[in-house]
Write a structure and sequence with these properties.
The chain is 20% helix and 42% strand. It is an alpha+beta fold.
Length: 133
């Protein structure tokens, strides 16, 4: 039986562009792109986890807004339950500490990157949302 892994991702938007982060080469899903975030710890809400993870990994603060998408994806290492949220930067600028690279891209450019599979439904939703605005 595979382990359930509950994670959150931040869709941080600044000046109409979305923050994308490339995983390090020495992690699971090496060099795949993802929305910044991480695991939800025991006794922690999704919002708390997202604020903590962004602070730890990118040394900045966000406010968490509306949910973008919830995806369940089965990888060889476990079943990932990913919930993504729109977020606003409220303090500081993102700084790389764990990821290989980061890019600010327009919603229409997101699908040009090699994303982790669990993130793809959120990308499709963001592209649709942007087309409506």
């Amino acid at each position: 039986m595979k382990k359930d892994i509950h994670v959150v991702g931040a869709v941080i938007i600044k000046n109409g562009k979305v923050l994308c982060a490339q995983r390090a080469s020495n992690t699971t899903l090496p060099l795949k792109w993802e929305f910044p975030g991480g695991k939800v710890e025991k006794n922690e809400t999704a919002n708390e986890a997202l604020v903590r993870e962004i602070n730890e990994e990118f040394k900045c603060s966000v406010s968490v807004g509306d949910q973008v998408e919830h995806t369940v994806y089965e990888y060889d290492f476990g079943i990932v339950h990913l919930t993504t949220y729109y977020c606003d930067l409220i303090d500081g600028e993102p700084v790389l500490t764990e990821h290989e690279k980061m890019e600010w891209l327009a919603p229409s450019e997101l699908s040009n990157l090699d994303w982790a599979p669990a993130d793809i439904p959120a990308i499709e939703k963001i592209e649709k949302d942007a087309a409506v605005k």
